Amino acid sequence: MNDRKDGLHLIEAAFSQYGYPPDFLADYDQLECLSGRRGRETFLVRARADGALAVAKCYDRAVLDLDPAAPAPAEGLDHPGLPRFRGKYHSDRYLCVVRDYVEGTALSDRVRETAMTQEEIVAVCCKLCDVLSYLHSRPQPVIHRDIKPENVILTPAGGVCLIDFDIARTFKPEAEADTLFFGTKGYAPPEQYGFAQTDARTDIYSLGVLLRYLLTGSVRENKNIRLYRPLEKIIARCTAFAPEKRYPNAGAVKKALLAANPRSQLLRKGGLVLGIAALCAVVMLAGWKVYQAATYSPFHSDAIPAVLNDEERVADAVAYMKDKYGTDLFDSPDDLATVGLLRRTLIEVYGLDRDYVYAFQPDGLPQESGDYFMPWGWEDSQNARRDTVVYAAVKVHDPAIVADWSSLKDDTGEYPGSRVAVEFAQETGILTGANRPYDITAGELALIFANADRVFASAETE
After folding, report:
1. Largest CA distance in the chain
2. Does the predicted model carry a pTM greater than 0.90?
3. How do the residues of the chain divide into helix, strand and coil, expressed in percent and rounded to 5?
4. DSSP letter assigned to residue 338
């Protein structure tokens, strides 16, 4: 206990030294730094008054031009789908905004653990629509501007909570464009990069991208994945380039989602058919068959999630790798692929030197080098990510591709070589059938390498 108190005192002393507000330090114990980037840090804290956990966003006023007298993002809001605002504190150096800590699982973690059914996905998006309807209907509408899986918490009680109002803003009808442009690449609409002022339709765009990601595992449209047509239409309208072509509000999106359920969409047709079928027994029987077909719904717990790969495609890839290389590495295609399996593939199948495969940059940020194949020093036991496997599959055929970062226009925090490899894979078809971004199977690892083999073999014959 004394060690814990001593540790807290050391943390508090460090906070005081760096100029955090004294009243903030007096009200809260700082437990952990959850994230940090230039100009802002996020801390898990505990209120000394009631022992409640909270999240503190601390903004460096030397980096960000913030007025401590202005209302904090989402201050004064009261909704079960939003973290409660607890207070704000400021010093000459920092502005700290404190909100309740929300217990639950991030949506990003949920989809990594197991695929969601369409019914679950639609339910989450409908609850998000309720939260957005509340935000957008305030006297001064609040635009979140960063809706993504990491900012959606699934609570133990089955609710949905939208967190992280870092870049939220109030809509000002007189403004032509936003002063600052932030957002997560892939989820942010065009106007968030300076084309116009963000409004409620900005969040609707991000909601559409989120729906696509949950159904397909990608924020980008993928022609290789067939979606249930009504949901595909909802995504297309939400993510229209021009804001005026999107849904006008979150309530309209929720209405469309609920109507997309075939039981809601087609029961009316079935009722009409039954009415006509009442004219004669033969037509009535035909009408009943039509009614049964019309009321079939994919929105149930046994539905196959859209993120699953084509089993025949995976089986073909496993057979291809076995026939071409004589390997049995993928004989258990349903097992989770590990970094160790990826390394064995590079060594045993493609003949790379073991030391070359296992070496990595020990200090500093990962970087390309002729001294090692992968710039990450991950343990063999770690589950393999799709993008890491794509990087390896592309590099083993042509290292120059992953070393050329000239096509990248911005920094999203992902390793550049991996991003270049994924873009190349999307353009050439290497990603065909590999739709799950995390915790891929051994069969999916074989699929990516088999696809890469065929793409590069085809390029050599042209």
Report:
1. 87
2. no
3. 45, 10, 45
4. B
Average pLDDT, 10 consecutive residues per value, the chain (462 residues): 49 60 94 84 93 92 79 78 91 91 93 87 94 89 87 92 69 39 56 58 92 90 82 93 91 90 53 53 56 44 40 89 94 93 96 92 78 89 92 94 82 80 90 82 95 85 58
What is the secondary structure of 226-282 as a DSSP string? PPPHHHHHHHHHHT-SSGGGS-SSHHHHHHHHHHHSHHHHHHHHHHHHHHHHTTSHH
Q: CA 142, 144, 146 angle in degrees (round to 5)?
A: 170
Q: Which long-range contacts (CB under 8 A, 24 or more apart) does 38-42 make?
A: 38/63, 39/63, 39/64, 40/64, 40/166
Strand partners, 41: 36, 58
Q: Report how far residue 278's alpha carbon sits from residue 223's, in angstroms, rounded to the nearest whole number.
A: 43
Task: Name beta bridge partners: 55.
Answer: 44, 99
Cβ distance 253 to 234 under 8 Å? Answer: yes
For each of the domains in the chain, give its residue range(s) and CATH number, in order of start.
2-100 (3.30.200.20), 105-260 (1.10.510.10), 262-294 (no CATH), 311-461 (no CATH)
